[in-house]
Predict the 3D structure of the following.
Amino acid sequence: MLIRPGNDTPAAINDVVFPGHRVSPVRRRIVVVGLGSIGRRHARLLAARPDVVLEICDPAADALAKARAELGNVPVHADFAAALRSQPHAVVIATPHTLHARQATAAMQAGADVLCEKPMCMTGDEARTMITWARQTGRTLAVGFQLHFHRGLLRVRKLIQTGVIGQVAHLHVRVGSYITLRNSASRYQQSLRGALLLDYVHQPDLITWLLGELPAGVTLTGFQAGGMPLTSEPNVMALTLDYQQPLLATVHLNYLQMPQRHEWEIVGDKGWLLLDADRGTLRIGLRETETERLETVAADRDEAYRHEHQAFMDCLDGQRGPESAGPAAARSVELYAMAMTSLAEGRRVACHWCKFD
């Protein structure tokens, strides 16, 4: 159901309150699997926690060496199966997308809890398998949508939920990030069609998280442009989501822009919001008073990951459920499949959502 307006007095963006970083009563062995830029970030931040014994895993010797240069003399595994045989408490999966389902399922079968980077997997069938094994084994399956902990996006969500901008009519998000291709260790984007949407499946997930509504239809267009040294097919995309009520969401993605851009604009019948998620600014416009104000957010990229890790540890301690549990995370996988059908066939695709419960 779409979140309806309520009443709230706007507060400063930095009033977003996170729970304290509680140290778990259990010191857990956690293996970070996959040591690209995101995996190394997970490893670096987890290594700083007193309740974690960090280990790392990657089949590439140079990736292990680079990680150990940053982390120090941490235990390493060159083989994923061997890492699971060592019976870690949990694994963080930060490998290429196509490995997520197989590795997450194997980890749960081996008795480990799982924090899997987005996207959860590649297909709805894979998502269903992962969810089934989580239930059968009783292991935690959480998916790494760490932008749920971004202070600016949390502020935007609160403003929408409390009705400050009224009934939302249009949401637009744009991401341009050539640096993602530069940072990619495996360069899978060059061979995996639609990798741009998979890399930025954050945005469809966040749209549902912000609006509380699943779309009724999806249209995706895209092409390859620019003659860049690093590229993907497509490297420019425009995604349109339509709904059963007067509401439209649009997403622009590209692998061309440097410096990176990440912006959100939400228009309601009482006001509008414009968030620059990278620069930490939020503009709020109100129709009735014809006023606009600027708020700033003191946040960095590591902060969202730290809070994601804290939520995962709290989940393992029974303090909460996963922030992005399997059934919720699977929606972005389903949307990716429907969007790619739209791109291939050049038409709007009606959304049919699976039941995972």
